[in-house]
Amino acid sequence: MKDQILKFFKKIEPDKQKSPFMHTLYDGFFTFALVPNSVTKGKGVHLRDGMDLKRTMTMVVIALLACFLVGTYNIGHQHFLALGQYTGLMEGWHLKLVHGLIKLVPIYAVAMIVGLGIEFFYASKKGHGIEEGFLVSGALIPLIMPPDIPLWILAFSVVFAVIIGKEAFGGTGMNVLNVALLSRVFIFFAYPTFISGDEVWVSGLEKIDGIYQSVQYGWAHHLFDSIFGWFDAAKFGAGGVAVMDGFSGATPLGLAAKGGWEAVTQVYTSSDMFWGLIPGSIGETSKPFIILGALFLIGIGIASWRIMLSMVLGAAFAGILFNAWGATPFMQVPWYDHFIMGSFLFAMAFMATDPVTAASTSVGKLYYGFLIGMLGILIRVFNPAYPEGWMLAILLMNVFAPLIDHFVVQSNMNRRTKRAAKATAA
Amino acid sequence: MNNGAWPLIRQRPFQILADVKEVPVNVFISTFDSAPLAPNLNLVAEGRGTAFQTGVNVLNKLTSGKVYLGLDARGKEAPSSVFTQAANVEKYWFQGKHPVGNVGVQIHHIAPINSNEKVWTMGVQDVITLGAMFSERRFNAERVVALTGAELNKPQYVRTYMGASLSELLNGNLKHDHVRIISGDVLSGEQKAPDSYLDFYDDQVTVVKEGDYFETFGWLVPSMKRPTVSKTFSNFLSPNRRFEADTNTHGEKRAFVVTGQYEDLLPMDIYPQHLMKAILVNDFEKIEGLGIYELVEEDVALCEFACTSKQPLQKILRQGLDMVHEQG
Question: Across chain A, which distance is largest between two alpha carbons, in Å?
Fold first, then answer.
């Protein structure tokens, strides 16, 4: 098996001089299929740990898989819930799943093709191997987008995030800002109507004469309809169904900003919010699966528990402080309920823990996480235009992470200087 | 010292030959080696108590400070009475995983080296040789050397001499030819041609398989026979599991991405990753401030082994040490 793969790759190897881009591409796939036969140098360590960056990144993607599955299903579930059809969780599951996939697959494909394309290009230009950073960024980006995001906007945002955010700084390992969040913040500021407000979080709806109704389904839905026809299963139909009475499409945070916790609980139950059966970005709604992913990452030692823990503490601290103050309805939202609204957990598990953009010292990580937790709640509660804070809080702390590290490292240096001074004096 | 014992003494910082004109602040001797497959120094010291004690006494005369012994408190085996009964020394007990037996780590916890200080370190066998010069009146170049590694038919201790010929030591003991012969341990030793010789300070020969093979989807498989500190392999569930060591790098070199990894493996109050980066950009103030004086290659060897990005930490550190040394 291995010999056959090796033979196959040797056969298709493009010429390095003639077509460097193709060779980089080839090298990327080759090292993906077969870990190279390189050995350690004659001096230095002779054994190397079985761990490498490909594996690190793959583990994060594995931790995200559950979010992908639930997210996909939830896209469909929310769509039909808005229309008042198949309101039971498992009713019409094939329609929900297919609708979710029809939304998610193009988003994932665009993010990956655009992002990896740019990575490949830069790798071939700089003459180094393809670095694995975008595997995770490319998996995170679809999960933090609204399901109806226009693909051209998504493509633009990925181009911006990868080129300006990462390659300009030297590629994987060198970026200051979290690439996935940068792509989202780009949309947030450049195309705000597509990513904020109440209207964007449920897919496949459009407003005609002031009333929401489902869009006319496209060819993909029709294709699946004909497949479902063979099994006598329920079909999508043509579309154009009006939403059920009282549908608002608002997210819990949007409601909380207006009327506090009471307004939220009128529409969503705590358990719905916990299990993630609410409108929102694709991957961030389902808390149990995010927690599962977070525990997995902590368990195998990939993500920093320090950041996660201190971020929870920071958020709780800010929440309790606001509870005590209580000037607006949003401030009165019980602090523990902040954890199941919005994308706190997702940001904690997968965004703040990015080792490249987080603080790199153990002590620094504690400060870093705590400040993100506090700032996130602060922005969530006070920002009138957009009641969610994690994206901005994390990006802000990304910028400050080197400063935090500087103080930690400096204190280590000072300790040493003091010790030397003492030794000289004695 | 005219008898040739001087090179036995090594000076830190920089891990160099001791300066004849300098009086060392302290002298440190680690009495156990925690590196993989390292020789058991208790065996080595057996019956050489007088020579060891004489060596220690000589060292006491040469330093302005004290002679420190690092003793093994890991509990597997009590240190030899040669060490525990030694007089005129300060004894410190150390417990933990590798690199706890490294004298550098022990120095850090006993009396850390400051930038303006010089200390000496010596191996147990070197102290014995030094002592024997005074008690037996001859330069005894005898060494007990451990022949180790899974590719040997018969791993064993041999009594030989400094700089022994590797081809004689390993004669007929190799399982096959596709191996790497290392003078020292697998983490910080040096590769040797089969017909060359043991390094001056080394008391161990390790033979490992060359790992020049491809591995299908090696980055994905959950459990392997590879040695690892990462919990992404199920190996951590069975700590006594046997693994197969070879020289494959298990991945390609990358930029520094993962953080906190080195700090977990180096039991010293030092930020290795920041130090490495400072060396790479020639930031002198930081290099000195972050404690390069306290480190030599073997101390960061375990970090290099575990490094996800496959960075050559020992090489970078030596580059930094040379740079600082040159600048005086």
Answer: 91
Contact residues on chain B for A131, CB-CB shorter than 8 A: 254-255
Complex ipTM: 0.85
Alpha carbon of residue A360 to chain centroid: 21
Binding-face residues of B in 26-85 toward A, CB within 8 A: 36
> Residues of chain A with pLDDT > 70: what percent?
97
pLDDT at A423: 78
The answer to whether residues B169 and B123 belong to one domain is no
* Nearest CB neighbour to A362, from listed B227, B263, B289: B263
pTM for the predicted model, two decimal places: 0.88
Cα separation, A258 vs A350, in Å, equals 29
Q: What are phi and psi of B197, to 5 degrees?
A: -130, 160
Smallest CA-to-CA distance from A178 within A39, A307, A22, A334 is with A307
H/E run at residue B142: strand B142-148
| CA–CA min distance B236, chain A (Å) | 9
Tell me which residue in B216, B273, B286 faces A1 most closely, judged by beta carbons: B216
Q: How far is CA B126 from CA A219, B61, B200, in A?
A: 82, 17, 10
B65 in the same domain as B127: yes
Measured between alpha carbons, how far is residue A58 from residues A25, A65, B77, B104 in Å? 19, 11, 42, 36
Task: Specify the number of domains making up chain B.
Answer: 3
* Residue B72, SS3 per DSSP: strand
**B104 in any annotated domain:** yes
Eight-class DSSP state of A284: S
* Residue tagged 């026979």 (tokens): B225
Cβ distance A419 to B114 less than 8 Å, yes or no, reads yes
Q: Do B313 and B201 share a structural domain? A: no
Q: Which residue of B has its CA nearest to A133?
A: B257
Residues of chain A in contact with residue B310, where contact means CB-CB under 8 angstroms, are: 48, 52
3-state DSSP helix/strand/coil percent for chain B, to nearest 5? 30, 20, 50
Name the one residue in this structure whose structure tokens are 């009333």. A211
